[in-house]
Amino acid sequence: MKKPILQGLKISNFFISLIVLLLSTQPLFSQVQPANKRPAGKADSKKKDENKVVFPLYNGVYVGADLFGLGNSLLGGDFISSEVSIDVNLKNKFFPVVEVGYGKADKWQDDGGIHYKSSAPYFRVGMNFNTMYKKQRENHLFVGFRYGASSFNYDVETTPLQDPIWPGQTSNPDIVDGIWGGSLPYRHTGLKGSMQWFELVAGVRVQIFKDFMMGWTVRKKYKTSSSISEYANPWYVPGFGKYGDSQMGITYSLIYKLPF
């Protein structure tokens, strides 16, 4: 009779020990999470990081030629200009740019009989900021600034009138020299002038085929300093436009991205 009792006690002790072991290891199991059940926030952030576009520092060099200045003369404008620009793509966000051009004017003012002539090179340096820098395509919407300068020579002369009574020519009574006084004609050639100016720029660049693009810019120009002759003001400043405190300008360019 004692043997079954002892066996019952052993079985009871076995089950009691098993229950204690399970209870003691339950917190450990509750702390372990399956690998495929991660918090939703971490998974979403990881996907966003994988889809985020990261541009290197250097993304290419662009060379552009302005066509608006050439077309302006063909459409009857008073001056002509040609311009080449070079800019570098940094992080697809910042575009330092250099613009070099040549401007020329040969203008007769019918109302006053004044002839103005000038031609000279000019240059501008500045920066564009691409507001669409997160896009992978070569489409840019940008704002920026330029600082420009030009040193030039210019000629100013007036047209004398034919004397209706006596043979020969006489001065134009409608034009008076504000410095020396008296009626004109006068003729001054090789006058020296220079100007520096600041520009606020807004524009767009659109990819049309592979590495070829076209772009437009609108510019508001402000004169910062100038040096002109005492005899006459320049009518036209290469790169700036008509002489004055401010001017509006437009460029239309064809652009090629160099293959390196």
From TrEMBL:
InterPro entries linked to this entry: DUF6048
Pfam families membership: DUF6048 (PF19515)
Protein name: Outer membrane protein beta-barrel domain-containing protein
Organism of derivation: Bacteroides graminisolvens DSM 19988 = JCM 15093
